[in-house]
Amino acid sequence: MAEEAKAKGNAAFSAGRFDEAVRHFTALADAEKTVELKPDWPKGYGRLGAALVGLESFDDAVSAYRKGLEIEPHNEALKAGLSDAQAAAARAHRAPPGSSPFGNIFEGPELWAKLTADPSTRSYLQQPDFVRMIQEVQRNPNNLNTYLSDQRMMQALGVLLNVKVRTSEEMEKGAPEAELPNKSPKSESSQRAPESQPEPDPAPMEVEKDDEGRRKAEAQKEKEAGNSTYKKKDFDTAIQHYTKALELDDEDISFLTNRAAVYLEMGKYEECVKDCDRAVERGRELRSDFKMIAKALTRKGTALVKLAKTSKDYEPAIESFQKALTEHRNPDTLKKLNDAERAKKDLEQLEYYDPNLADEEREKGNELFKQQKYPEAVRHYTEALRRNPHDPKQQGGVLHEVGALPEGLKDAEKCIELDPSFSKGYTRKGAVQFFMKEYDKALETYQEGLKHDPSNQELLDGVRRCVEQINKANRGEISPDELKTRQAKAMQDPEIQNILSDPIMQQVLVDFQENPRAAQEHLNSPQVMQKIQKLVSAGIVQMR
């Protein structure tokens, strides 16, 4: 498959279609690398299938889509891709009766090299309608009969067959008057009379070709005018220019993305979203560059963020940014995604704020704590803090109870010592450790409990909560003071102290900062990896 992509890329390059050549060289390689790095990601197979369809390797594309559906059977995009690939494969395998005997000369990338090398056909390769005509014949040789009335196709056929084909202009020049010296003017006139009879006129095709080129050129001028007026903040005029460009040429989605950018500046966010959706849809039909589709999706996400009024409103924006990143990983898009996720979380906390409910939850936690029902108490204390995180009374009341947590920890450990299979012992111990913000230790406790009771929901919820807190620290989503407190607590842990004093681990940590390649080699050691994970969980090391 890689060799085929290379061949098609070379042909596109020879024909002067440089953007297409780059896509051939990179699209398949990127898709194959994605699948290799993350074989359980269904979207990777969707990318691979799309690349293979673009290379007309339809059977391989069908196989790629099916592998993706094995992972995610209900993925609608993969289903649609599979259907299209199967239809294309059926068309490719079908040999219609009466197919053209010249069809085989249109096979292989050398076709484009021949047409480029011959002066009589070289200029045709700059004409989009001629290129599409050749591609149609490549897909179905029987289409050749449809295009034989086009003088350009006849000329191309002559080049590919290595025979001289005389054009209508050459035929007219090929019968000069000097060949008839003995004829009188009258007989000369009568002799030439048949030549003046109407013949099939290729002019309409030439007019159509010239008209399309003219319209595309005018569309580009309109786009440039739109760009100029946009820079001058004359947004209404810019919109007019981009709209005119679209009317002239609907095969360039940059007219849509540029108009969407103007709507974004004008605060017409709904119009921006509509243009971005249309650009993505049209771009997929035209198999436009992934970067252009990613740009449209990013712009849509930006507009949706502007429209967001509740935390739930951020969800479609986040989804749009995520889709853009699957098309093309761009640092600006990634930053916009992180900002949107952070804004959503902040708004969720604001929406959740309720001082009265916070007081009620704290009182429930106090009662349960007195009954030594520590996991239940922890849940109510946590809810109280979520409902009113900045109230000193809440912080003070909860922290007062935390002073007794070491006692609860000892009780839970005693339960486990008496009966190592007692699930409640692990949930209580993990809850106390979690509330003391010893998330790495709580995670270990919950995981140990799951060895004895793998389906216990309390233990599973505990693992999820610990992982969320650890990941928050890794992403830098906790305050500097909280991170400093967590690190200080971890530094008092003898196990952490032993890891940090280990000369080998000291070298590993130095390599992570100064020699990434050596650091990667260290990670091949399970023992080193386990210690690194311990430091990450404790907040000592952050992975970016």
TrEMBL record:
Task: Using the record's annotation, list all stretches that form the STI1 domain.
Answer: 108-147, 493-532
Specify residue ranges for compositional bias: Basic and acidic residues. Answer: 211-229
For the region Disordered, what residue ranges are annotated? 169-229
- Where does it mainly reside? cytoplasm
- Subcellular localization: Cytoplasm; Nucleus
Keyword annotations? Acetylation, Chaperone, Cytoplasm, Nucleus, Phosphoprotein, Repeat, Stress response, TPR repeat
> Per its UniProt record, what Pfam families does this chain match?
STI1-HOP_DP, TPR_1, TPR_11, TPR_16
Recorded protein name is STI1 domain-containing protein
Top-level taxonomy = Eukaryota, Viridiplantae, Streptophyta, Embryophyta, Tracheophyta
